[in-house]
Amino acid sequence: MAESIQTQVLVVGGGPGGYVAAIRCGQLGLKTTIVEADRLGGTCLIRGCIPSKALIHVAGKFEAMKEHVGAGKLGIRLDAAPQFDLGGAIDWKETVVDRLNGGVTALLKKAKVRAVHGKAVFVDAKNCTVQTADGEVQISAEHVILATGSTVAGIPSIPYGEHVLSSTEALLQREVPKRLVVIGAGYIGMELGMAYARMGSQVVFVEALDRILTLFDRPLLKPVEAWLKHHQIDVHLKTKAMAVVETADGRALEVETAEGERKLLPCDKVLVAVGRRPATQGWGLDKMAIDMNGAFVKVDDQCRTSMRNVWAIGDLVGEPMLAHKASAQGEMVAEIIAGKRRSFNPVAIAAVCFTEPELVGAGLSPDEAKAKGIDIVVGQFPFAANGRSLAMQAGTDGGFVRVTARADNHLVLGIHAVGAHVSELSGEFALALEMGARLEDLSGTIHVHPTMTETLPEAALAALGHAIHA
Ligand code: NAI
Questions:
Q1: How far from the centroid of its chain's Cα atoms is residue 130's Cα?
Q2: What is the CATH T-level fold of the domain 164-274, as seen in this structure?
Q3: Residue 278: other Cβ atoms inside 10 A
Q4: For residue 351, how far is its CA from the centre of ligand 1 (angstroms)?
Q5: What are the percentages of helix, strand and coil residues in the chain, rounded to 5?
Q6: Which stretches of 377-425 are DSSP H helices?
Q7: What's the CATH architecture for 351-463?
C-alpha cells in the first residue's frame, strides 16, 4: 500500500530555491517535506554553477601552468609542458559536487525536513504522488512551495545527442574535443566555451544577436572581447545555427549569416547554450489551477501564486534565473508561512559571469540610468592602478570598477566591474546598493590595503572628481 504523508509544507524541488525554503521551514518548526527527483542540490550544485566553476578553475590552472614552460614566468620554470586529463578533472569536480550534495542532505536532516526521492506529480493543488525506489508515496500538504527550476532550451533542428551537448553534458565530458562550436554567446556559452578553449579546444562561437553577453554594456565587455581576440577565438555574430551536417572530414555546424549566406563550421562537438526555460511540464502543474505569466508561474511580491497557499520561487517565476534569487525567495516564503511579514523587493540582484575576465553587474548601468531620465555621475577605477591586483597578475586585463550615482544626492544606483577575481567583490556591491549607500559612504569606508576592494572607494572618489590613485 502507498505510504501517505501529511505535511504542513511540501517543497517541490531540491535546488537552491527549494532546499533553502525547506531548511528555513524546518528551522521555524514547520513540519516540512521536500521532494527531489534527482540529487539534492538542483541544477546549481549538481550540473550548473558549481561544477562549471570547478572546471573553469581547472582550465585556468592548466592554462596558467603552460606559461611556465620553457623560459618560465614569475621565476617559475617547467621543463615539460603540463598534460591535461579532462577525466581526472571531472572526477575531482564530482568530489566537490558530492561534498555539497552531502552538505545539503545533512542540513535538511538537521532541520528535521523529510526528503522524499522521486518525481512529484500533482493531482490537485495540495496533493501529489511520488514514485520512489521503495514504492509510491502520497503527499498531502497545507502549503506547497513550487521550486522546480528550469531546463535547458534547445534548437529543434539541432537535437541533443552524442555530438550535440547541453551544458549538462558539457560538464561530464572525459575528453577535450579538438574543435568545439558553441551556439549562444550568453552566460553559459561564454563561461563553458572559454573554459574549453583554455583546456585546449579550438572554440568558435555562433551568436544570433549582434553582440555577446547582452546583460553587460559595451565598455564592460571590452576586456572580454580582448581575451577572445588574444586567444584567436572567432565569434560569428548575427549568425544563426541551422543544422549539424556530416562532412568528408567529420561534421560541421551549418550556419546562416544576416545576409542569408550559408557557411559550414567544422567541429567535433557542438555545445548548445541558447537559454533556459521554466520547468513547468510533466508534473501536473496544469492540475493546480494556477495563473501563468507567459512561460513562468505568476506570483506576487511574496511569491504567492493565484492558488491559496501555493507558492512558487526561483527560475519557475521569471528572470533573473539565478540561484541566489531563488534562495532569497525560498527563505522569504518560509518566513511568511511561519507568520512573519516579508516581501521580495531587493534594490538589486547582482549577477556575475565567470568569463575571462569575470564580469559583475549590480543595479543600473549608466545607460540604464539615463534611459530612466536620471541625471548621473560616473566614476571608474582601473585594476592596473591597484597594487594587490598587480601583485596577483590581475591588473593587466583591462579590468575596472565603475560606480554610477545620482548627480543630485550621490545615491549609488549601480556598480559594475570587469577583471580577474571581481566575482568576489559582488557582495560588497550588492550590500552598498541594498543599504542605500552614497558615493561618500563608499569613499569614506576605509578599505583594507592591499586588496582589490580599494578600487571601489577610488571609483567613488573618481565620480566625486578626485580619485587619489588615478
Ligand atoms: P542566455 O540567454 O544568457 O544566452 C543565450 C544566447 O543564445 C543568446 O545570446 C541568444 O541570442 C543566443 N541564441 C539563441 N538561439 C540561437 C541560435 N539559433 N543561433 C545562435 N544563437 C542563438 O542563456 P544561457 O547562456 O543558456 O544561460 C541560461 C541562464 O542560466 C541565464 O539566463 C542565466 O541566468 C543562467 N546562468 C547564470 C550563470 C551565472 O550566474 N554565472 C551562468 C550560466 C547560466
A1: 29
A2: FAD/NAD(P)-binding domain (3.50.50)
A3: 23
A4: 13
A5: 35, 30, 35
A6: 387-391
A7: 2-Layer Sandwich (3.30)
Residue type at position 226: A
Q: What is the largest CA-CA distance in the chain?
A: 75
Report yes or no: 349 and 185 within 8 Å, Cβ to Cβ. no
Q: Report the distance separating Cα 140 and Cα 294, nearest Å.
A: 28
pTM over 0.90: yes
Ligand 1 atom with minimal separation from the 241 CA: 19
Mutate to test the pocket of ligand 1, among 158, 165, 187, 191 (most ligand atoms within 8 A of CB): 187
Q: Structural domain boundaries of the chain?
A: 3-152+278-337, 164-274, 351-463
| CA-only gyration radius of the chain, Å | 24
Residue with cell 565530458: 173
Ligand 1 shell residues, CB under 6 Å? 155, 183-189, 191, 206-209, 214, 240-241, 273-276, 320-322, 351-354
pLDDT in tens, the chain (470 residues): 789 999 999 999 999 999 999 999 999 999 999 999 999 999 999 999 999 999 999 999 999 999 999 999 999 999 999 999 999 999 999 999 999 999 999 999 999 999 999 999 999 999 999 999 999 999 999 999 999 999 999 999 999 999 999 999 999 999 999 999 999 999 999 999 999 999 999 999 999 999 999 999 999 999 999 999 999 999 999 999 999 999 998 999 999 999 999 999 999 999 999 999 999 999 999 999 999 999 999 999 999 999 999 999 999 999 999 999 999 999 999 999 999 999 999 999 999 999 999 999 999 999 999 999 999 999 999 999 999 999 999 999 999 999 999 999 999 999 999 999 999 999 999 999 999 999 999 999 999 999 999 999 999 999 999 999 88
Q: Which fold has domain 3-152+278-337?
A: FAD/NAD(P)-binding domain (3.50.50)
Cell of 332: 522569504
What is the spatial distance between Cα 284 and Cα 279, in angstroms, rounded to a whole number? 11
**Rounded distance, CA 203 to CA 201, Å?**
6
Residue 7: enclosing H or E segment and its boundaries?
strand 3-12
Q: Are strands 400-406 and 376-382 parallel, antiparallel or unpaired?
A: antiparallel
274 Cα: distance to centroid of ligand 1 (angstroms): 5
Query: Mapping DSSP to helix (H, G, I), strand (E, B) and coil, where does residue 332 land?
Result: helix
Answer yes or no: same fold for 3-152+278-337 and 351-463: no
Distance in angstroms (rounded) separating the CA atoms of residues 432 and 447: 13
